[in-house]
Design brief:
single chain, alpha/beta
Length: about 150
């Protein structure tokens, strides 16, 4: 699977760890934007990663900032992106199985490297359950189009 990774300065070290883990697991990884630790703004990285996904350059994305919250907000502004903040393995699993999240947002400040590794492993291996969840994703798509999701 092709994975794009983006970070701001607070998540640079975690991004390097995630990239290494994904490569060892056999995934093609593209770290986009500034990942050296130099001060950078999280919306820039969110934009670069989401563009990779919507243009077909990546299948999934991982975004890392201090809390993960800013990345999730910015990424979810892009049509077709379903970014989820995961702070544990269960939220990572549910973001994929129920929400078909194509972007995982992580906190560099609140999560240790061991937990990040477990979250990544769960998130990458979990598929989308479909069924009633597909109906809900269709409603999200209607909202993206500025349509009433109840119709």
């Amino acid at each position: 699977m092709k994975v794009a990774i983006g970070t701001d300065h607070r998540g640079a070290e975690t991004a390097r760890t995630v990239a290494q883990q994904l490569r060892l697991d056999g995934h093609a990884v593209n770290v986009v934007g500034e990942a050296s630790g130099v001060a950078s703004d999280y919306p820039d990285s969110a934009w670069l990663v989401t563009r990779e996904i919507v243009t077909g350059g990546a299948d999934r994305g991982v975004l890392i900032c201090g809390t993960g919250i800013g990345m999730a907000i910015a990424a979810n502004k892009v049509e077709g992106i379903r970014a989820a903040l995961a702070l544990d393995e269960l939220s990572a699993q549910l973001s994929r199985s129920h929400n078909d999240a194509n972007v995982l947002c992580l906190s560099a400040d609140l999560l240790g490297h061991t937990l990040v590794r477990r979250i990544i492993e769960v998130w990458m291996k979990t598929g989308f359950d479909g069924g009633r969840h597909a109906r809900r994703l269709a409603k999200i798509t209607r909202i993206e189009r500025r349509e009433d999701p109840r119709t």
